[in-house]
Amino acid sequence: MIVALAVVITAFIGAVGYQSASSSAASPIGVGEAAGAVPDGATVFDDEIPAVANLDPDLLKALRRAATDAMEDGVEFRVNSGWRSPEYQNRLRREAVSTYGSEDEAARWVATAETSLHVSGDAIDIGPVDATAWLSEHGADYGLCQIYRNEPWHYELRPKAVDRGCPPMYADPTHDPRMRQ
Prior knowledge:
Blueprint: H1 2-23, H2 50-53, H3 57-72, E1 78-81, H4 86-100, H5 103-106, E2 123-127, H6 129-138, E3 144-146, E4 154-157, H7 161-164
Antiparallel strand pairs: 1-2, 2-4, 3-4
């Protein structure tokens, strides 16, 4: 049991580290802000950053309402990743294959450009941990839901969640039918 828990914690820390490293505008990926890289410290209010400006307007509106309310609790939402160009997404996928050793394992963390909701502007990765904890508790009130159990930073808009609560999470993107195109 303890060994299994250690494996899960190690995988989570590795994923958070990979996600954080892959989202920085200064990352070794070589893709700039115009393609969706996010500079350190970006928030959901930074309209001049394409990763924020190119998000679905309804998602952005819900995020901004939630972020404003979270500030009252002393919590600030930082954008780790938002909208991404297909080229940037493909690059992230290639790097994930290299990091995780196979297409199947990479698919647990990074979608293809054809299936990524970041490319369509319908997903955002939020940090730091206190922001994701706040969204975990209050996100449904704004229609913001964590979709994947293995990605506590990844949120999408689910308007019905305001009345019904968030839908059950998928274990990871490989269990999401939208990723099987």
